[in-house]
Amino acid sequence: MGxxxxxxxxxxxxxxxxTPSKSLGQFAKFRSxxxxxxxxxxxxxxxxxxxxxVHVIYDDGNGRVIVAASVSRTKHVFxxxxxxxxxxxxxxxxxRDAMDVLRSPD
Length: 106
Prior knowledge:
Layout: E1 29-31, E2 36-41, E3 53-59, E4 64-70, E5 76-83, H1 88-103
Antiparallel strand pairs: 1-2, 2-3, 3-4, 4-5
């Protein structure tokens, strides 16, 4: 995966958007209300807005990184919270676990 720690995220051009736009080169979204950076990945590790997806939230304000896997807007099948001090390798490992859950048959 090449490390998806917050320090490795691409600086987004222009005004932050409410959802990522791969066509515009935006790989994450930024919420100004809590300053969290959010990343959506497909079960194959590609940037996506579609479900199923892994949602990675870099929540520095609360000192944590949240990794969740969702099959729809209301159905979440995996969730793990790491400290903001987690290494990129630790975060990548949890993301892989979430992707495995999404790829596994029901």
